[in-house]
Structures are given as C-alpha cells and as structure tokens.
Amino acid sequence: MEQIKKLKELIASAETDADKFFSKGNNAAGTRLRNTMQALKVTAQEVRTAVTEEKNKK
User: What span, in angstroms and rounded, lies between the C-alpha atoms of 8 and 12?
Assistant: First the structure.
C-alpha cells in the first residue's frame, strides 16, 4: 500500500507540473513532469511485480 500512496503523490505532482508546462509554457516544469512520469513508470512496475509475487504465493 505504501507504493500506491507514492503513486498518488507522484500523480498530484505531475498534475501541477503539467498545468505549469502546458498552460504557462514553463520549461522547467516540463523537465520535472518528464522525471515524474519516469518515476511513475518505475513505481507502477514495482507494484505489478509485488502483485505477481503475492499472487504466486497462493
């Protein structure tokens, strides 16, 4: 569940930076957005792996 909480925080951060980048043209926000999206990808893969491991234990 800790990883789900982290995903929620990353999504909130991405939403803020996406707004700054797309509506205000802030290039630094675009860089942060790309970094956040990469972190989301990695965290989502960790969740997938954990779920698969738990499923296979049963």
Answer: 6
| 8 A C-beta contact, residue 29 and residue 17 | yes
Domain segments of the chain: what residues?
A: 2-23+30-57
What single string gives the DSSP state of each residue in 1-58?
-HHHHHHHHHHHHHHHHHHHHHHH--HHHHHHHHHHHHHHHHHHHHHHHHHHHHHHH-
The pTM score is 0.86
Q: How confident is the model at residue 51 (pLDDT cuts 50, 70, 90)?
A: very high
